[in-house]
Amino acid sequence: MTAPIDLHLMRHGEPALAGRLLGSTDCEVLPDGVRACRSAAAGLAIRQVVASDLRRSVDCATAIAADHEVPLGLDGRWRELDFGHWDGRSPEEVDAAALRAFWDDPDGAPPPGGERWSTLLARVAQALEGVADGSLIVTHAGAMRAALVAACGFDRRQSWAFDLPYACVLSLRLWRGEAPAAQILALRP
Asked: 54: which of 25, 34, 142, 150 is 20 to 30 A away, CA to CA?
């Protein structure tokens, strides 16, 4: 087995459109959301920051990278699941039966014009393969859940048992190679 790497996954701070299905909708993060992320990252030993290319992640990642004086990179594979025609809408604006079917089976009942869970999982798994030791990845709750499935072997339903509030940090240790493995080091709300 190869030497392990440590990485941190952080959910972006609270966005201006909190409470909506924000997949590819690109909205700003609230100033308090940026402050919460900076505070959560303060005690982390990080060598670089990588962010989803959506503004709510980029704004938080930019501030953290400046605080830690480390490089910042953007990677669209860390985006949230694309909710298609539902994107940017509140759950109350979406057909309740269709939304329930999606939560029960996001691969078999994806949002109209949206992304399947398996597509999100594949792109996050690919992004994990290239993550460097000491990285902080500022991303979204869906991508963090996909990382738990890809790295730790949880099934999709198990990944939903994790509470991932805004600005939380999930720290993982990954072993890559022929027999990949992962360990959760910490989950800080």
From this structure: 150
